[in-house]
Amino acid sequence: MSSSNCVIDVKNLQTFFNTENGIVKAVNGVSFSIEKGKTLGIVGESGCGKSMTSMSLMNLVPRPKGYIAGGEINYYYEDGSKIDITQYDHDSEKMRKLRGNEMAMIFQEPMTSLNPVYTVGDQIIEAIKLHQDYKNKAELRSRAVKMLKKVGISAPESRVDEYPHEFSGGMRQRAMIAMALSCNPRLLIADEPTTALDVTVEAQIINLMGDLQKELNMAIMFITHDLGVIGDIADEVMVMYTGRVVEKSDTKSLFSNPKHPYTKGLLNSRPVIGSKKRLEPIEGSVPDLLHLPEGCDFHDRCPEAMAICKKEDPPVFEVEDCKVKCWLYRKEEKAS
Amino acid sequence: MTGEEKILEVNDLKKYFPIRKGFFKRVVGHVKAVDGVDFTIKKGETLGLVGESGCGKSTLARTVLKLLEPTAGNVIYNDQGIKKDLAETEGKELRKLRRNIQMIFQDPFSSLDSRLSVRDIVAEPLTVQGIGKNRKERTEKVKELLEQVGLNSYQMNRYPHEFSGGQRQRIGVARALALNPELIICDEPVSALDVSVQAQVLNLLSDLQKELGLTYLFIAHDLGVVEYISDRIMVMYLGKIVEVSDADDLYESPKHPYTEALLKSIAAGDPFSDKPREALEGTVPDPANPPSGCKFHTRCPYCSDLCKTKEPDLIPTLDDYDSYVACHFSDSLDLKSFEK
């Protein structure tokens, strides 16, 4: 991957939590990079470390229990210089400049992530004031209005003075996006931004994000558990399970030729319109990260488990440009 | 699968919430959450109910069960050939009727009492209805129910927080089954779950339906889920039913512009198609101040003058006596089916 277009490059990231019962490895050796104007989708069930990966990128891992135990998160500035986020304190000047200005985040719950006692406009202005050099009040306000207009909120001049409770769910999410984009970030992290929304609104938000991405040439990291959305928006997909990446490939081959049994399971669990075929769910549920099974973390739910899966954790194999962490692909590795 | 026998008949059901203002809390208007809904459910079928949030799906479910007092209308339940109107029944009689109609809720985290053990949660309907001679007998029944929904009976002394989301939803299902109901109202039972767990619960619900001959009213906003589980589907918009149709027909030949818009906005999940999702603009209007005429006219791409003044009735469509649509121009419009 050419480094000139690379916005973020994560190598072997490990984010752990100290708990009374031991160390929970929420993110365990995750590597990926995203280029300008591209979208990386991250999928997996709840508790697979998706959100903790994004929190690590922002250097916002809940303290004091959580910490980044190892790895590198290299962020590349516009001029080509880089910064390793893991080397800085979460409250350092450098980090505060990075958040908002360079990378921004939208969360799942638009109601809980907006402050109910400030107007939407004030909250957008706060973000701009902190990160940009606007001083004049009128200028700040017109910038907030412009942002609301950009994300498709009608009558932004009057809406800017309204409170979050006066907005509908879809509009709140638009306001969140307006806030995130107010400082023209080069990397947008979207953590399940459409999960709480209706299909109609979801379609609006996805289209909006796609348009804004083209306009601003942002890199997007899109976290979701809905594979339908991933198919629509992502260029590349990373499937996570128990804090590890089990499969990484471009979106088309992930859908047409899923490799890891977990990916296949996720795809088969989804009801497909027009087919009344019985769903084939993945049996059981995500294991407790403190009591992971021996061998491959997925073997006790895996329909294709072999003897070796119970004993040894599989390494990552490269198959047809995809990375798969599964013993099934051991032979192909040898052949190539 | 579907018998012709109607198990539930809802006629012109209305639920208005008063808006009160001022010192004397004068009623200044009404939120018409459910505004004249008619439908029937046949024995053994699954009737799906879809619509955006805020269009009255959950209120409709609660009003049918009389958890909310209906403002007007009838809910006629066919109790072994004897027709009883739930809207008119009260007290003991109502409690007896509710044995036959149970509900599964959306949020498996808030719909189970965190201070009760699973045994007590599932046994509660039995205790309330006075079923089973003693505690021991009821415990036996609870064990049976837990096994039936795929949980281990030794887990019954645990508390809800010890279970995952999918398991909690199974406990909710077990509780709903405790009284051997005929009809179960499922209010978004899988919306809060991960895809893999969602598939497990959907399979469980359809297995139980076959095994016990249950009838479902299934509410969801995920059109894929609804299509998978339903025999017939109702589409609701702002307190009104706008289309009722056979599940396959609804996706192949939608009759109402709103249905078409919903189908267009589904994530196809196909990375090979470049066709963008066509999003329906705007949001559901304020039900306290609904638009005149057809309630969908403000967002409808096919809107004409007639739509702004006259509200269409829900009438049977030409080709099928069992499907209904509420649109002035449903016969002349050429609406697109769902494309993969």
TrEMBL record, chain A:
Q: Transmembrane ranges?
A: none
Which is an annotated GO molecular function term of this record? ATP hydrolysis activity
By its UniProt entry, which Pfam families does this protein fall under?
Answer: ABC_tran (PF00005), oligo_HPY (PF08352)
The ABC transporter domain covers which part of the protein? 8-267
Please state where this protein is localized.
Answer: Cell membrane
What GO terms fall under cellular component here?
plasma membrane
Identify the domain of life: Bacteria
How does the record say this protein sits in the membrane? Peripheral membrane protein
**Alphabetized InterPro entries for the sequence:** AAA+_ATPase (IPR003593), ABC_Ni/Peptide_Import (IPR050388), ABC_transporter-like_ATP-bd (IPR003439), ABC_transporter-like_CS (IPR017871), Oligopep_ABC_C (IPR013563), P-loop_NTPase (IPR027417)
Question: Can the keyword Membrane be found in this entry's annotation?
Answer: yes
Keywords (A to Z) from UniProt: ATP-binding, Cell inner membrane, Cell membrane, Membrane, Nucleotide-binding, Translocase, Transport
> Biological process GO annotation list?
peptide transport
Q: Member of which family? A: Belongs to the ABC transporter superfamily.
Protein name in the entry: Peptide/nickel transport system ATP-binding protein
**What organism is listed for this UniProt entry?**
Halanaerobium saccharolyticum
UniProtKB/TrEMBL annotation, chain B:
Q: Which superkingdom heads the taxonomic lineage of this protein's source?
A: Bacteria
The answer to whether the entry has keyword Lyase is no
Which PROSITE patterns does this entry report, sorted A to Z? ABC_TRANSPORTER_1, ABC_TRANSPORTER_2
Keyword Cell division: yes or no? no
Q: Which UniProt keywords apply?
A: ATP-binding, Nucleotide-binding, Transport
Q: Which family does it belong to?
A: Belongs to the ABC transporter superfamily.
Q: Which InterPro entries match?
A: AAA+_ATPase (IPR003593), ABC_transp_ATP-bind (IPR050319), ABC_transporter-like_ATP-bd (IPR003439), ABC_transporter-like_CS (IPR017871), Oligopep_ABC_C (IPR013563), P-loop_NTPase (IPR027417)
- Record-annotated ABC transporter domain positions: 8-263
Organism of derivation: Halanaerobium saccharolyticum
| Database matches in CDD domains | ABC_NikE_OppD_transporters (cd03257)
Give the transmembrane ranges: none
Name of the molecule in the record: Peptide/nickel transport system ATP-binding protein/oligopeptide transport system ATP-binding protein
Q: Which PANTHER family match?
A: D,D-DIPEPTIDE TRANSPORT ATP-BINDING PROTEIN DDPF-RELATED, TRANSPORT ATP-BINDING PROTEIN
Q: Which GO terms describe its molecular function?
A: ATP binding; ATP hydrolysis activity
